[in-house]
Amino acid sequence: MKKWIFSLSTISILTLQMVAQKPIYLDNNQPIEKRIQNALSLMTTEEKVAICHAQSKFTSKGVPRLGIPELMLSDGPHGVREEICWDEWDPAGWSSDSCLAFPALTCLAATFNPDLSLAYGRAIGQEARYRRKDVLLGPGVNIYRTPLNGRNFEYLGEDPYLSSKMCIPYIKGVQENGVSACVKHFALNNQEFDRNTINVEASERALQEIYLPAFKAAVKEGNVWSLMGSYNQFRGEFCSHNNYLINKILKQDWEFDGVVISDWGATHNTKQAINNGLDIEMGSHTNGLSISLSNSYNQYYLANPYLEALKKGETSVDILNEKASRVLRLIFRTSMNSNKPWGSFVAKEHSNVARKIAEEGIVLLKNSSNILPIQPSAYKTIAVIGENAIKRMTLGGGSSALKVKYEISPLEGIKDRFGKSSEITYSQGYASGASMFKKVLKCKMDNDSLFKVAIETAKTADLVIFVGGLNKNHEQDSEGGDRTSLNLPFNQDKLIQEILKVNKNTIMVLVSGNAIAMPWINDVKTIIQSWYLGSESGSAIASVLSGDCNPSGKLPFTFPVKLSDVSAHSFGEISYPGINQNQEYKDDILVGYRWYDTKKIAPLFPFGFGLSYTTFEIGKATIDKSVCTANDEVKLLLSVKNTGKIAGAEVVQVYINDEKCSVLRPAKELKAFSKVALLPGETKLVELNLPVKEWAFYNDKTSKWEIEPGKFNILVGTSALDICQKIIVNVN
Ligand code: GLC
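A: This is the predicted complex of the input protein with alpha-D-glucopyranose.
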């Protein structure tokens, strides 16, 4: 008996010692906030400062002495970027980092399907986790203000409500993998022209009603763990250390408990970086004097200069502890979260998700002669024309570019789907000089002969599929430069017009992340808006062309007829692109359809527009209350019927119009949408909830969201212009 008690007490002492030896910050069963306080109590000032700035291109320091790992960050929003050298922008040349490329976020927005956003986040989060990344630098949610912006393809369109609803599930999906999403670029980074320096002035209403909602949704509903400050200035302060945006709005009003990371090179000032809420300084070369220094990271604004300020008592250790706490919280949520899954890489499930999003995001803009869907054996010869049929679109575009395991080109997809029943010919038609594959495809022929050969190819074909658009080269949908025209580049308009003269049976497949002008619109019967669709591009395009998939995408931004119709381009250079690094958003709250519909400017194709191979009927909508208060929620019920012969999906959209208000309000504002899949002849009931408080406008005099009592029109439709019903509600 004695022996037994002796051994029991020995075990309990050992266990106690074991427990005593394992400090709280290492114990995954301890609450994160306790782990943070414990780690802080053990860290030196130097160690706290060290975790607040980069130590290499894409990592920030951990605390080696305490076994706290460094933070591994990676681009980007559409897939996990290839490994980059430790301290150079060059690829590291790994052989194990070829990823799966998901469709660009513009395509995700065009699905109007939050379920696919969750699937997207989960899949890309698994890829990031497998690649041992703790922070995935996406999603980008900047609003589509001008069709010239080089990075619109990375974002979710012109409407704050759509951008909000489509970024939340993506963020949750990524973070389920113990990987932090990083919502960017906060804020008002709506163009690439002069992005590193330009100072944006915008009204409080435009800020709160248009440019911040998606970020607020990412924080309040998506619970995003990190956020990237943008390059530009807002009201005279750089956004990566902007007191109003970060300290007041993000951290105080929105109670953001994550980490603010600067864009790469977006930090300009130690004092502001310390006091205005920047938590990790990435990528900058500080004062520009230390670029060539080896390990210039110690020169960063939040590095030695920060230590100096602390030693001189110019800043309090409380602010340092607040920064370090946030960084530790991010580490405990990601790399030191021992419950996190293991991820997977280029898994078949990821390809399926990528293809599903691509198929559901493609928008059918025109099909007036029902050429689509293509009946496989209907055409003996199908001519595919255009460089975008073979151009690798996972390359280019800037930091979101990817090294992929595979990418099915539109030509490959078309050959695979139609090659058995038709002869497929190909003609490049034009050469952009873009890097096609590993090398720049040096064309044997000059553009004139490419042009002539393409016309000959079109002449002899029974059907032409033109695959053109933009190509993620500089000023053609890429970071670091805006387009200089709304028109298609590389003489494509002329080529399209000549092709149409010799063959009326022509399908236009536009590959882009932006709206383009269509001078040939009246001569073309069939237009598909395809996005940068990633690895499964060709299979998704062929699937829609063949009718294997019935297109259900809707435009996440308006296609204007001409650039001067665009609100940002209607108030002179100060509005776009700015004058001497200064810019005023004079379009204010009238962005996108809020402008066109209020000013009654007819767009080429409206926001929310997209056709189907079948037809739908929206039944009479009813609401559960026609008198309400700001605290109510109006429930709208309606039926949707598939009145055609093939399965398809429709997106019911609900806008509100505040008919009489003391301030200017747009003709309509999207406040609910629902995508409904229907078999031929099937009818489904759709319920849409409309919290009345979301109908408010931001009163910049009271700094509050307000609703003025009175009549509101609820507009039900299938695009911003296809409004089929109006229901009146009175708000008390
Ligand atoms: C770039 C981009 C940002 C990217 C970062 C790292 O300049 O603005 O989106 O995540 O630097 O590549």
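Residues 168 and 222 are 5 Å apart (CA to CA). DSSP finds 18 helices and 27 strands in the chain.
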